[in-house]
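User: Can you predict the 3D structure for this chain?
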Amino acid sequence: MDILTQGVVGAALPLATRQKKQAVAAAALGFLAGLAPDFDALIRNSEDPLMFLEFHRHFTHSLFFIPVGSAVVAGVLYGLGRRWLGLSIWKCWFFCALGFGTHGLLDAATSFGTSLLWPLSDRRFSLSIISIFDPLFMLPLIALVGAGVLKQNGRYGRAALIWSALYLSAAGYQHLQAHRMAKTLAESRGHEDVRLVVKPTFGNIFLWRSIYAVDGRFYVDGVLPWPRRKLFEGTSIATLNPTRDFPWLQPGSRQARDITRFARLSDGFVAKALDGSPLVIDVRYSFLPTETTPLWFIRLTPNGPPGTRVVYATDRSAASEKLSRLLRMITAIP
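Assistant: Here is the predicted structure, written as structure tokens:
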């Protein structure tokens, strides 16, 4: 989830436990602790371009890491601001634990996947019910938590939590309806027993991206379950076959192993770019639900030496143009 939403949700929970006394301190500690798990973004290696992907939403987001991570945050914040906070170290830790604990759960509601049960399991959990940035979800939370801090009233924190539950429930219902529409579309094409996922498009819970795999191809489409049911038929792309797509690639080479890692991190939804360039794309994500233009990918070096690494890259080109098209699709305007 975006950093501001993470902080505000992290503030809402400890704020909800307070009234006038300690309300501001509780919200401030929860806000900062709610941001802390994303420090995993600093885990990088210049010689391994995929390391940061493997550690993104990994151990710092685990439910089992909450006591440790929140204790570290509490220790730092208590050491820096104990005169201002006016709290015991234990109460400081309590507020930090509440804020820290919301982070992984909120990320699990998005679609990338979160290692909630590490070290017991490396499985990445993703409900795929909300975009990583959703202003309709975020703005009321900011207003409610901000009012709670200004008025030093925990009722606003509780109202923010209620809003979160209601919005995520609505998002879950939209996800269910989008999945049903996508499955019906696949069946209308004669595609049975498909591997199907649906994900919200950027910034909303109205328009969804459907991706399903069948007979060696991925099919991507847009579905609008509510307020007006509408389908936007998209395109298809062949699933990745390294032997066929990159005949020059040496089995067991560094690049071949990096492709395997990227495929695992992309849950198997990988393909070679349609334009024939030596790119392996994550088919799950594109700015528009009906296209396969990737948001991120890895670039291979043809006929490179055995130690050559892939290059990880992102593509945000033509974002403003695509945003206007996305808005027209959301509002079902031709």
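The chain is about 45% helix and 15% strand. The beta strands are 195-200, 208-214, 217-224, 230-238, 270-272, 279-282, 296-299, 311-314.
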